[in-house]
């Protein structure tokens, strides 16, 4: 943080963080929010009300804006619109258990939505797997989507915005049934990148973005970004970071791979961190890269009690030893009053203005009063970082899952979700409400008072993992900025309805081995295993025991005018 900027703040130091009185200069003048996955099932206009769990489930959304024409946006999410409903049917079979809502083998989960009017309306284009290029591949999408725009390469391979723009969609992926080159007891998780030159209407076949020589490794939580600055000597390069969960001892280093040819190929992965073990509290997760206007790449991740940043100044060829951006205390899992999994993964963005050396990062820390959003700044290209500034308050509730970006004019935009519980000592239908909030800081100004940008609240109890063991709001949200707008996309359950039978089931199995994540259940299903074999309780059957709109979650975009 520069001395000049710091001198404008009336601040006190409390609990090791800079607590800033919030002013109004960057307050949102207006905000609207709209469903991006509209309709919920592509090609079915009635599906917003007729789709049933888990077909009606979307989460972990991403959004990107065309840098040449902000009328065009692309969004994505973990999207189960092609998954069959729970229980017996033409897909799962007549002998399927009524409570079987598991991921069905060979069905993808990476959704695509587009807008051509600045986010006012959206078109659900289905899954990446619906594209002819994907139908002809050996892979299916497995979610964890991230979308980023950059320049399109010309016929000679040179990047220029004169050629137009190219959007990149990174995703987890796995082999279609019968297509894997690995033994039947192996179910590797790949990382792939597809690209689009027509604002998300059509997409290329998936390019495997990491060498996969060991089927015991599990790649997860990837993030893609593009060097989109014409002033950069590495203009057009694509950077992908992720965590590689290694079977031996479950070591998990952060990795990076680079494409210099528009996503056609990716380099051999480089390891950015030691291979720590998350079971020891020293794991590395939640990585995210960003690129400055001079081509400096900043790869950030959470490691133990720190948010770390490693820097490359030569286009990803070499990386500096990571430095600490700030301390992190993971928020409670679950947040009191709810039952969905959480994390304190950070968001990071570089100031895109030519000549700027500033980088911003945000995450949510656990405090005695609940989750509080903090922001840090480096003004020297990532060498040193400011004291964290707390920009959320008790009034919004328990903060989680933020997004951050820096606009072309230097304005910093941050949005996040926050939960208020009637009774923090329990969870279930009607106990908690989640809303979405925005705060911003114009160049030379101060952080605005958080303002609500969601037009309806979300009850997290209307969401669920496919195994019904917990509520599910995903792991992240994202935000993208233009000079006059900010676009925040989040998981929204305003159209969902809770199910008392599922609430009771979650309480009954709390603390047992049946409480597992969706991805582990998906891997077990791929291997031909029963993911619910160790369930000690009777699982409810949503088609029989729950209201029709149980589990209905959507990807909502808030269009904010700061």
TrEMBL record:
UniProt KW keywords: Glycosidase, Hydrolase, Signal
SUPFAM superfamilies membership: Sialidases
Region (Disordered): 34-59, 76-98, 262-287, 443-462, 528-547
Protein EC: 3.2.1.-
GO MF terms, alphabetically ordered: hydrolase activity, acting on glycosyl bonds
Biased composition, class Polar residues, residue ranges: 47-59, 262-277
Domain Sialidase: 192-389
Signal peptide: 1-28
Name of the protein described by the UniProt record: Sialidase family protein
């Amino acid at each position: 943080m520069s001395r000049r900027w710091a001198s404008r703040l009336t601040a006190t130091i409390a609990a090791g963080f800079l607590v800033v009185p919030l002013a109004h200069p960057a307050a949102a003048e207006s905000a609207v929010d709209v469903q991006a996955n509209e309709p919920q099932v592509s090609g079915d206009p009635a599906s917003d009300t007729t789709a049933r769990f888990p077909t009606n489930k979307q989460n972990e959304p991403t959004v990107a804006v065309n840098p040449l024409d902000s009328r065009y946006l692309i969004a994505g999410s973990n999207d189960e619109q092609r998954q069959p409903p729970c229980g017996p049917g033409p897909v799962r079979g007549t002998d399927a258990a009524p409570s079987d809502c598991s991921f069905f083998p060979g069905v993808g989960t990476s959704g695509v939505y587009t807008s051509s009017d600045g986010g006012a309306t959206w078109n659900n284009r289905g899954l990446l797997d619906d594209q002819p290029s994907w139908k002809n591949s050996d892979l299916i999408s497995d979610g964890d989507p991230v979308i980023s725009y950059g320049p399109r390469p010309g016929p000679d391979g040179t990047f220029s915005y004169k050629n137009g723009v190219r959007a990149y969609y990174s995703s987890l992926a796995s082999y279609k049934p019968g297509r894997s080159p690995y033994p039947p007891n192996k179910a590797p998780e790949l990382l792939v990148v597809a690209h689009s030159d027509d604002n998300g209407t059509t997409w290329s076949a998936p390019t495997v973005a990491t060498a996969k020589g060991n089927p015991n490794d599990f790649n997860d939580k990837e993030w893609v970004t593009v060097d989109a600055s014409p002033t950069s000597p590495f203009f057009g390069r694509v950077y992908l970071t992720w965590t590689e969960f290694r079977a031996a001892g479950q070591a998990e280093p952060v990795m990076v791979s680079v494409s210099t040819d528009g996503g056609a190929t990716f380099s051999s992965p480089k390891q950015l961190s030691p291979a720590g073990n998350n079971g020891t509290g020293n794991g590395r997760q939640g990585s995210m890269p960003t690129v400055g206007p001079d081509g400096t790449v900043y790869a950030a991740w959470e490691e133990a009690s720190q948010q770390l940043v490693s820097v490359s100044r030569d286009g990803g060829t070499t990386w500096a030893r990571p430095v600490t951006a700030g301390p992190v205390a993971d928020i409670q899992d679950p947040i009191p009053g709810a039952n969905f999994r959480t994390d304190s993964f950070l968001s990071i963005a570089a100031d895109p203005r030519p000549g700027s050396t500033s980088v911003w990062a945000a995450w949510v820390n656990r405090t005695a009063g609940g989750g509080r959003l903090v922001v840090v700044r480096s003004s020297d290209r990532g060498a040193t970082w400011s004291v964290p500034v707390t920009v959320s308050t008790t009034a919004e509730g328990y903060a989680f899952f933020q997004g951050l970006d820096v606009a072309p004019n230097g304005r910093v935009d941050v949005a996040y979700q926050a939960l208020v519980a009637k009774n923090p000592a329990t969870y279930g239908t009607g106990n908690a409400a989640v809303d979405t909030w925005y705060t911003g800081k114009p160049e030379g100004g101060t952080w605005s008072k958080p303002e609500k940008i969601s037009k309806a609240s979300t009850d997290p109890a209307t969401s669920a993992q496919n195994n019904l063991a917990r509520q599910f709001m995903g792991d992240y949200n994202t935000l993208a900025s233009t000079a006059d707008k900010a676009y925040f996309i989040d998981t929204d359950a305003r159209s969902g309805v809770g199910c008392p039978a599922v609430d009771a089931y979650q309480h009954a199995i709390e603390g047992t081995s049946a409480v597992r994540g969706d991805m582990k259940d998906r891997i077990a299903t791929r291997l031909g295993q029963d993911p619910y074999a160790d369930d000690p309780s009777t699982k409810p059957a949503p088609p029989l025991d729950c209201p029709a709109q149980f589990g209905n979650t959507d990807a909502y975009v808030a269009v904010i005018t700061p």
